[in-house]
Amino acid sequence: MKTYNGSCHCGSVTFKLKTDGKKIIQCNCSICTKKGALHLRVATEDFELLTGLDALVLYQFRTRTASHYFCKHCGIHPYSNPRIAPDMISVNVRCLNDVDIDEDFEIVNFDGKHWQVAAEALNK
Fold this sequence. Notes:
Layout: E1 2-7, E2 14-19, E3 23-27, H1 30-35, E4 39-43, E5 47-51, E6 56-59, E7 67-71, E8 79-81, E9 88-92, H2 101-104, E10 106-110, H3 115-122
Parallel strand pairs: 3-10
Antiparallel strand pairs: 1-2, 2-5, 4-9, 6-7, 7-8, 8-9
């Protein structure tokens, strides 16, 4: 497993994670499109928040299943607990340090505009 370190823009929120995952999700739902997040999902035991618990603000909408966390100082979205897997951590790959997204990962599109249909297709 590879270890990655990451942070928000101002550095108030720092974290590390371990994963063998190379596929990242680009979702076209309303929130992911606006925040520009690319998602790398990891188990909670493979994610460690190092600093900044007090700097995080929770945002939820519609079903209130997903938990989106933002730094209250710089506004950056480092991670979430996604609706499709609320017991996991979805790290915003754009917040990882020292990665080349095009070289290190494969981007997979998820049709979040049609969330229910896209989620059901994953289970087939």
